[in-house]
Amino acid sequence: MSPPTQPYVTNLSALPGSAETNAYSKSDDLSSLESDTRHGKASPVLSSDDGLLDLYKPMSNWEGAHRYDPIVQWTEAEEKAVVRKTDWRICLVACLVMVCLQLDRGNIVNALSDNMLGDLKLSTNDYNLGQTIFYCSFLFMELPSQLISKAIGVDRYVQHKAVLIYDLHFLLTRSAPESFHRWVPIQESNSDVRPTSIRSWSIVAASQAALKGKTSFFITRSLIGALEGGVIPDLVLYLSYFYKGDELTTRLSFFWVTLSSTTIVGSLLAAGILQLRGTHGLEGWRWLFLIEALFTLTAGIFALFYLPASPTETAGGLRGKKGWFTEREEVIIVNRVIRDDPTKSSMHNREASRSMFITVHLLRANSYSELALVCLMRLVGFLSLWKSFTDFDLWPLYLLGLTTFIAPATAGAYFTLTLRSLKFSTFHTNLLQIPYLVLFICQNLGLVWLARKLNSRLLVASIGSFWQLLFLIVLVAIPDNLGRWAKYAITSLLLAFPYAHPILVSLNSRNSGSVRTRSVSASLYNMFVQAGSIVASNIYQSRDKPYYRHGNRVLLGIVSANIVLFFLVKFYYVARNQQRAKKWEALTVDQRRTYLETTKNEGNRRLDFKFAH
């Protein structure tokens, strides 16, 4: 029996001022639905007399089950204090991981300003191909990364992502788990060498200092993409253990503010480091790759001993023997999260898809009968994965992820090359990236704030596409002899667009409706975003330089189509909600209770689920 998908409370006497009172305590009857506009879906309000408490009870092996209390209450001040502590302990370190991600994948743009392509005898088409290889590797690792991290825990996977051959050998020789529903975690003490994910890609990033030509350039781009692939959806899933749905949007905006801030810092560092050209006979871009990779390596070692598995498992490592949270704080964290979304307790943080276990057993089968049984169970596991993949109610968001960011990704990848073609020096080229990044950060935060203020996600998110459209029209229309500062200003304003990514990622997570779907949908959404980056890497061509007028016209068409798509997706979710509301309202109270007790629909496929838009 699948748990309900809606926020709920089970007591009748909520304390004044508690978060639950404000949202959910106006009715005691299941037949009364309060529209919780803050969450974007209707919230059934249950009393202790409804006889439905068992439907909301977490699974027994969920890591927070021992802190579950359906009648516990807390004050708003207590909740704010817990969220603040979580921000400093968890979100801040997650942002540090994003710093490492951006430094090692983004410094190639700074390296281009130091004539990296000329030193390696590469053309801009070779650069396009290298970036395409990077994004393809990044994309292909998204879903496998998410499935593995759900099995062994996001905290461990972000730390223990490399040495895949060693891990495969370890899994195949390990004793079988007691249940196909539970993953026996890989303990750190069982291996002598467990390099972290961050350490792995930073080592490869450092090796770029030894690039010799086209082949080595392609190989390193592929390895960095493969090792970084899946990190972002892993972190999104990880943060969902600690935060409610409406809080996640803001925390994700911190992610992309961190990325932009890292690019600013990276530009400042590059302006200085690239002046080392000629030191010990090395070009400046080689020093850039080496020095910045050393920083991310250090950060990876720190993260290895810092990230906890869940809110109730913070003791140990650099966190201290007593952990971060008191018992009272753990109770608040656990109950506030699952009252916002009960499906978060339907899988524990070390639970994998059945297909993962069955792959291991398939390779270890000792008889034909065992092989047949394992093959049958493997089919069941893949059907579960296929069920998540074919959740077509999420595909409109995937299409937005594919098309929304192509234009700025294209212009951004060529920004330093454009500035160099306008006769700006290497030093000034790196510094001139900072103004648009500052404006980008402000618009990012402003867009997220506006979406929450108006309780309108898709329409607010489309503002960024209208912004892109305006400045692409200007780029297409301006004459070739326009001054370099005017061209710089127009391109900078294009890149400073209001960034809808945090809104769309959070919306995708919220509309997934279950942990199993959410773990897959986070990767699928990011895969579509990376597919958009692959498209972006091939729009500007050498024959079209230096002003790329044909490429800009292509971008103009893509952005125009994307704006139309935003409105179509909005209409789709409104129509789906109206369709379900009509069916739900036609049921009597007893019929609704029977539906909740017997339905086999899960997550966003249930009648009582309402899509946010």
UniProtKB/TrEMBL annotation:
Keywords: Membrane, Transmembrane, Transmembrane helix, Transport. One of its GO terms (cellular component) is membrane. InterPro entries: MFS, MFS_trans_sf. The keyword Ubl conjugation does not apply. It is found in: Membrane. Gene3D superfamilies: MFS general substrate transporter like domains. Residues 18-45 are annotated as: Disordered. The chain crosses the membrane at residues 222-242, 254-275, 287-307, 397-419, 431-451, 458-479, 485-504, 524-542, 554-573. One of its GO terms (molecular function) is transmembrane transporter activity. It comes from the Eukaryota. It is a multi-pass membrane protein. This is BQ5605_C003g02256 protein. The lineage of its organism: Eukaryota, Fungi, Dikarya, Basidiomycota, Pucciniomycotina.
